[in-house]
Request: fold
Amino acid sequence: MADLPPWAIPAILGAVVLLAALWAGFAAARARRPRVDGSMAVIHDGTVIDEFVVAGPRAQIKRGDLTLTATRAKDGKVEVRGHRGKEKFTARLDDGDTAGLPGGATLRYTEQRTRMLDMITDQHGTEPEVTGS
Reply:
């Protein structure tokens, strides 16, 4: 310690504080990212052949030859990028929207709320009543 210049310790402490502030800012920015909460369904000839839940700021799914990444765009839609086999695809999906996949299948995105209401309707055979707004 005796060999260090007098400015070294304050400089090291300042660097540590700066790195901590940068890390906190990065963590706060990641926490504020909009989330993708819902499900993706792969449909072929009108039949759901695979469905997976997507949750978080970024969802990455790999099933067989299908690989996709879903993120929430600023306008509220879900941006999907991926590939099936060697063919790439991109899509912007809103709740209930579909996009064609290579190989003739279709990809459908459903918001978590819509999915829950659909499950209630399917289970009870009644239309859900939405109150308030």
Remarks:
- Strands lie at 36-44, 47-56, 58-63, 66-72, 78-84, 87-93, 98-100, 106-111.
- The longest strand covers residues 47-56.
